[in-house]
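Hi C.,

You asked whether I'd gotten around to modeling the 89-residue construct. I have! Everything is below, sequence then structure, no commentary in between.
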Amino acid sequence: MHAGTRQVLLLFKKGASRAIQSPHDGDGELHIAFAIPSAELSNGESWLQTRGIAVEDNRAWESGGCSLYFRDPNRHLIELATPGTWSVY
């Protein structure tokens, strides 16, 4: 998958997620994340709100990043993630 000048591919083995009730288990409804600048997170949330798209979770991570989660029409979990969410971003 190309996202601007970057490329990312994440794979999750079914049943291998360590987190409780993790959306990253690789079966059924899937999860995809898009890295966005921190300053754009509130714009993303406003955009979703004006379109009646429910935000499932808005999480601040210990490493400083934030994630905003919502579902697409096929029920896949979409994440908007700011810098500090992952060790590489």
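If it helps when you're writing up: The chain has a mean pLDDT of 81.

Thanks,
B.
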